[in-house]
Amino acid sequence: MIAFLSDFGHADPYVGIVKGVIHSIVNDTHVIDLTHEIEPGNIFQASFVLGISYKYFPKGTIFLCVVDPGVGSNRRGIVGAGGGYFFVGPDNGIFSHVSNELDLKFFEIKNKNLFLPEVSVTFHGRDVFGPVAAHLEKGVPLEDIGPGVEDITILNIPKPIKRGDSIQGEILYFDRFGNAITNIPLDLFDGSGKQDVKSLCVSVKGHKFPVVDCYESGKGKGVFGILGSHGFLELSVYLGSVRSKLEINRGDKVEVKSVECFRSVEF
Question: Is Metal-binding a UniProt keyword of this protein (predicted)?
Answer without folding.
Answer: no
